[in-house]
Amino acid sequence: MQLRVSSYEDVKESAQARAAQPRASRRLLLKVLLPLLALGVGFSVFGMYLTRLQVAAPVVAAFRPCVEKPAGLERWIQPPSDLMHSMSDEELFWRASWVPLVKKYPFKWVPKVAFMFLTRGPLPLSPLWERFFRGNEGRYSIYVHTHPSYKINFTSDSVFFKRQIPSKVSEWGQMSMCDAERRLLANALLDLSNERFVLLSESCIPLSNFNITYQYLIRSRYSFVGLIDDPGPYGRGRYNPNMAPEVNIDQWRKASQWFEVNRKLALSIVKDATYYPKFKRFCKPHCYVDEHYFPTMLFIESANLLANRSITWVDWSRGGAHPATFGGVDVTEAFLKKILGGQNCSYNNQPSSLCHLFARKFAPSTLEPLLQLAPTLLGFGS
Q1: 219 closest CA partner among 123, 113, 137
Q2: Is the model's pLDDT at 66 over the cut of 50?
Q3: pLDDT by residue (tens digit) across 263-311?
Q4: In this structure, are strands 194-201 and 260-262 parallel, antiparallel, or unpaired?
Q5: Which of 4, 188, 218, 356 could form a cystine bridge with 114, CB 3.0-4.6 A?
């Protein structure tokens, strides 16, 4: 009898033990899974929050055009606020060649003169030019091309402040000099208000006040580029027969590199792909491409638009490959009166005594005497 009871109790305990095992396993499983589940939910919520932070702003920005007002005409007519860009010459020339085909301007427009300074470095006569430009804002633009290693440094109140363009090395007598001039023209063409384009050096000075200069250029029917047909060794003697048929010897011309052109001719220079390769390949020293490329190309393309003279006075009387350079002792009242007087030329097919608007070459030492004489003789700077 005892043996039977003992067996029953053993069986009962064994059954109870087996029944308790699943419950214990479930409790253990719940203790492990619940924290993992909570952690997973937490990570999911956090991930969704981060995703919303990263994606929400672009999604909103993508739909902004639906609520923004369309861009107005200002976007297209305003000149670049910063002349320092990252365009290559190829990109710059292409961009500068855009031409509005509707000639009537749908906005208030004041034509401007672009003053383009081609210099190796500093602008020592800038104080004189500051006085020349003073009070004439809105009628001029300034562009400065220097050696790429030189950075011009003017204060924010200067007319030359931030007027330097991206530049490359240019060498006298080399195609790189014409490249620099084309670069200046292309940057100036980005301003749709620029109608006349004057190339100057750091040694140039103005011979009249701004208003006279401005009216003279804006009202001119012609651009001021020389077209000398020199039969001698320094003219036709520099011609290379390999330039034909694009350029024949009877079309070969010579002039000073310091030109002035209107917008139409500036565009012709920038977009040229016909004559440029010929001059780059066959006009090498002692050809001096900067004296022949633009005069010859413009003579072939648009001779009827050229005045066949320069508006920049120089003195070649001392001989040599370069014109005379003047120092401080040369700049006297008598000297300036000599430059200003006794001139005869044609302006808009009429006789004129005002033939030169600028003069060169003036050394840095001429600044002080020029500043003193400008109010009485040049008409500005008082």
Answers
A1: 113
A2: no
A3: 999 999 999 999 999 999 999 888 999 999 999 999 999 999 999 999 9
A4: antiparallel
A5: 188
Identify the CATH number of the domain defined by range 78-312. Answer: 3.90.550
For the chain, how far is it from start to end, CA to CA, in angstroms? 140
Distances (CA, A) of 32 to 19, 44, 154: 21, 19, 73
- Token pair for 124: 């020592």
Q: What is the DSSP string of 167-184?
A: -----TTSHHHHHHHHHH
Is pLDDT at 170 greater than 50 in this prediction? yes
- Asked if the model's pLDDT at residue 99 lies above 60, the reply is yes
CA-wise closest residue to 223 among 114, 136, 322: 114
Closest CA to 303 of 230, 229, 204: 229
342's torsion region: left (phi>0), alpha (psi -120 to 50) or beta?
A: left
Distance, in Å, from the CA atom of 348 to the CA atom of 352, rounded to the nearest integer, reads: 9
What are the structure tokens assigned to 30, written together? 């719940």
State the pLDDT at residue 38. Answer: 62
| Residues 163/81, Cβ–Cβ less than 8 Å | no
CA distance 194 to 236: 35
SS3 at position 120: coil
**What pLDDT does 13 receive?**
46
Across the chain, mean pLDDT equals 87
Q: Residue ranges of the domains in the chain?
A: 78-312
Whether pLDDT at 15 is above 60: no
pLDDT tens profile 114-162 = 999 999 999 999 999 999 999 999 999 999 999 999 999 999 999 999 9
Q: Give the pTM.
A: 0.81
Burial class of 176 by CB neighbour count within 10 A (0 to 12, 13 to 18, 19+) = middle
Other CB atoms within 10 Å distance of the CB of residue 372: 13
Q: How far is CA 20 from the centre of its chain?
A: 88
For residues 110-148, b (16+ Cβ closer than 10 Å) or e, as one string? Answer: eebbbbbbbbeeebbbbebbbbbbeebeebbbbbbbbee
Residues 6+ apart with CB under 8 A from 310: 224, 225, 226, 255, 256, 258, 259, 356
CA distance 114 to 188: 7
